[in-house]
Amino acid sequence: MVAATLQNIGSWALGLFENLGRASIFFAKIITAIPHALTRPRLIIREVYSIGVLSLTIIVVSGLFVGMVLGLQGYITLVDFGAEESLGVVVAMTLVRELGPVVTALLFAGRAGSALAAEIGLMKATEQLSSMEMMAVDPIKRIITPRFIGGFISVPLLTAIFTAVGILGGRFVGVGLLGIDEGSYWSQMQANVDLIDDVANGMIKGVVFAIACVWIALYKGYDAIPTAEGISLATTHTVVNSALAVLGLDFVLTALMFGNL
Amino acid sequence: MTTRFIETMVGLFVVLGALALFMLAMKVSNLSRLTSNDGYEVSAYFENIGGLKVRSPVTVSGVRVGQVIEIVYDSNRYEAEVVIRLEAAHDYFPIDTTASIYTAGLLGEQYVALEPGAEEDVIIAGDTIELTQSALVLEEIIGKIVVKLTSE
C-alpha cells in the first residue's frame, strides 16, 4: 500500500520532470529558430492577424466592461469617504498594474491559445508536421516559431489596448454617468501613476505572460497525442495551465516589482 | 482573405496598440509632468515631514512650480532634509521664502508650499530655505487640544 503510493508519487514526479525537460528543449528550439523566422515576415504577419487582430473584439469589449465595473465599484466605495475624486487613480492603478495584463493574458489563452494548440495538434494528428519533415522543411521554423513571434508581438499590444479602453470605460461611468469632475479624474491619475514603476512594469508583465501563454499553447499542441481525444486534452491543458501560469507568475512579478519583499 | 487585407488589418492593429501605449504614457502616467533637468535644486530642513513623498508637488500660490526629488534624514541637525527641484522658469524667490508642508484636502496628498518673502537677494541652486514650517501631525494637535481643555 505504502510502496504503491510512493511509486505513484515517484512516477508522477518523473513524468513532471520529463514534461518540463521536453518543454524546455522545445522552447530552446523556438528561440534558436527566431532569426530564421524573422527573415520571412509574411508568415509572422499572418499569425499576428489570426492571433492578435481577431482577438481585438473580445479584448476591447471586455476592457470596456471591466473598466466600467471598476468605475462603478470604486465610486460606491470611495463616495463613503468623500474621496470619489480619486476614482481615476483607483481605475488606472488597478488596470495598469494588475487587471490589464492578467485579464488580457487569460482572455488570450482562451481565445487564441486554445486555437493554437488545436491547430497544431490537428496538424500533428493528420501527419502534416511529419510530411513537412519528409520534405526537409523544419516545422519548428515554418509553423511554430512564426506563431510564437506573432503571440509575442500581439499580447503586449492587446494589453495596452485593454488598459487604455478600460480607463476610458471608467471615465465613461465616473465622469459621464456619476458626475465626477473630469479634471480631477485625469489629474489625480497623472499625479499617482508613474511611467516606469507602473506603466512599464505592467507592460513587462504583458511580455512575460505572452511568452508563457504562447509557449504552453504551442508545446501542448506539438506534444499532443495524435488522436481526437489527445487534441481535446491538449486544448484543455493549454487553457488550464496558461491560467495557472499567468496567475502564479503574476504573484511573483508583483512581489518583485511592487512588493519590496 | 487576401494578403493585402491581412497586412492592412495588422497595420491597423499595431497602430491601435501604439496609440494605446501613447495614451498610457501621456494621459495616464506622469510623463507630461516630469520636470526636465534644466531646473535647479534647493533644500529645506523640516522637523517633521509628515506624509511627504518623493515626487510630491511644490507649489507657490497653489501653482505647481517643481517637485520633491529626495528626502533624507540629517543626523547632524536632527531634521529631515527635503531636496526640491524648481523649474528654471521660476528663478526669483527671495532668500526669506518660507516652505511649509500642507495637505491637499482632508485626506489628500501632502505638498510643499512656498511663500515668497521680501528680501532683495534670491535663492540660487544649492541654497537652503531656512524658514520652514513642518507638517501638521493630527495626533500632536489632538494632544495639544486635550492639554488645553484639561488645564482650564
Structural commentary:
- The complex is a heterodimer of chains A (261) and B (152).
- With 261 residues, chain A is mostly helical.
- Chain A has one domain.
- Chain A has 9 helices and no strands.
- Chain A has helices at residues 2-38, 41-51, 56-79, 87-125, 128-134, 139-177, 182-192, 195-222, 228-257.
- The longest helix of chain A has 39 residues, at 87-125.
- The two termini of chain A are 43 Å apart.
- With 152 residues, chain B is an alpha/beta fold.
- Chain B has 2 helices and 8 strands, in the order αββββββββα.
- Chain B has helices at 3-28, 138-151; strands at 40-46, 57-60, 63-74, 79-86, 98-103, 110-115, 128-129, 131-133.
- Chain B has an 8-stranded mixed beta sheet, with no helix packed on it.
- In chain B, a hairpin with a 6-residue loop joins β5 (98-103) and β6.
- The model of chain B has no long low-confidence stretch (mean pLDDT 84).
- Classes of the chains: A mainly alpha (261), B alpha/beta (152).
- Chain A binds chain B through residues 42, 45-46, 48-49, 52-53, 56, 81-83, 92, 96, 153-154, 156-158, 160-161, 163-165, 167, 186, 189-195, 198-199, 203, and chain B through 3, 6-7, 9-10, 12-14, 16-21, 23-25, 27-34, 55, 57, 106-107, 109.
